[in-house]
Amino acid sequence: xxxxxxxxxxxxxxxxxxxxxxxxxxxxxxxxxxxxxxxxxxxxxxxxxxxxxxxxxxxxxxxxxxxxxxxxxxxxxxxxxxxxxxxxxxxxxxxxxxxxxxxxxxxxxxxxxxxxxxxxxxxxxxxxxxxxxxxxxxxxxxxxxxxxxxxxxxxxxxxxxxxxxxxxxxxxxxxxxxxxxxxxxxxxxxxxxxxxxxxxxxxxxxxxxxxxxxxxxxxxxxxxxxxxxxxxxxxxxxx
Amino acid sequence: xxxxxxxxxxxxxxxxxxxxxxxxxxxxxxxxxxxxxxxxxxxxxxxxxxxxxxxxxxxxxxxxxxxxxxxxxxxxxxxxxxxxxxxxxxxxxxxxxxxxxxxxxxxxxxxxxxxxxxxxxxxxxxxxxxxxxxxxxxxxxxxxxxxxxxxxxxxxxxxxxxxxxxxxxxxxxxxxxxxxxxxxxxxxxxxxxxxxxxxxxxxxxxxxxxxxxxxx
Lengths: 239, 216
Ligand SMILES: Nc1ncnc2c1ncn2[C@@H]1O[C@H](COP(=O)(O)OP(=O)(O)OP(=O)(O)O)[C@@H](O)[C@H]1O
Ligand SMILES: [Mg+2]
What we know:
The complex is a heterodimer.
Chain A (H helix, E strand, L loop, with lengths): L1 E7 L2 E7 L8 E5 L6 H8 L7 E3 L1 E2 L2 E2 L4 H8 L2 E4 L11 H13 L3 H14 L15 H13 L5 E5 L7 H16 L3 E5 L3 H7 L2 E6 L2 E6 L1 H6 L4 H11 L2
Parallel strand pairs in A: 3-9, 3-10, 7-8, 8-9
Antiparallel strand pairs in A: 1-2, 1-4, 5-6, 10-11
Helix pairs in contact in A: 3-4, 3-5, 4-5, 5-6
Chain B lengths: L4 H6 L1 H35 L2 H16 L2 H11 L9 H26 L3 H10 L3 H31 L11 H12 L3 H30 L1
The structure holds adenosine-5'-triphosphate (ATP) and magnesium ion (MG).
The site of adenosine-5'-triphosphate has 10 residues of chain A, from helix 1.
């Protein structure tokens, strides 16, 4: 992405942000509250419409609307802080609704693949429950499976574990770690620095709508280049 | 005022016949209203501005006047632009509009109460905005829509009594006629009340059955 700018009134939530992601790269985005992390990843699939700048995915420009944007969203999965599962549908239908309605996949095939995905997130036994009958960690893993069902080339995570009790965080991060090891391109907004250290190829730090630092994990943590980042790491890691 | 069984039975056949007409008009108009309300509600929320404007005007106008005025409008005013309905179809058309307009507001507020995350999840999966509303948000809102909608639709059924002013042979019109022809009063009124209660009761029962299905 190039020069992405997004303002709310006079306030610049994103200020001409440039960011590149290689295929298969795992990028962790961190930064203080209000620094524009959510806005950044929401500009990628245009849940937020930037005023200026350009996003391209696999050479294709992400347009402002219409059929191209919809086609593109089908190839970019998103996982939200609040899970946002469809509460009126059983787990399995949450996963099959995308492939069935949007790709015209048959019921049986979609269900088979949903079960396979549920096995991948270790929830095969929960297929016929409603989301409200699951724990937060389980719901978030279903949300990951729902996004994967569309066979995305890129997965976006916006603080996927911030709404979870501590004991459930790990089960979600483990699924994400595994997904990364399988070669999925991922952009993850998170404060889980342990996850960042283990899973990320690169970590970027945002402050006031800009990316102010970016480096592979070791360098990022051991040799923080920016005073704001140093302060942030001190706070979050309790140095 | 005494009630006699003979009189009761005497007025029963014409009233039952009239009840069939009330049921027909109710079923048709409620069905049409339920079919057109969701797209109208969604058009009002996310349509292009002319569609939003048109639906808003229709909703505010129809809600702002008594159903009787809507009936009179369909019966007396629409023929001026070449649309002529007989009494029965005037009833269906007018009550469809009345029912749909109330349903539009219920559908809209129920969908809006779902919160932003549901819409975003549907969009992120790759649903178009319209399909997100129709296929994800609306079905989800149904549970909240049903109870208030049932109330409004019951009012629409009761408003069918107003069709007596244009001589549709529904329960109220026929009941009135019977009272003046036969001077049987109490038996007619009691029977009319029972018939309305049964019809509205059927709607409530249907709605509760649907609600149970939605709740699993
Ligand atoms: N819809 C909106 N209207 C006005 N301001 C907004 C809106 N959405 C976000 N902002 C502002 O933009 C800034 C960036 O928001 P964003 O949600 O991207 O931050 P964030 O880094 O994700 O923070 P957090 O860690 O709290 O999630 C914030 O200051 C926020 O107040
Ligand atoms: Mg955020």
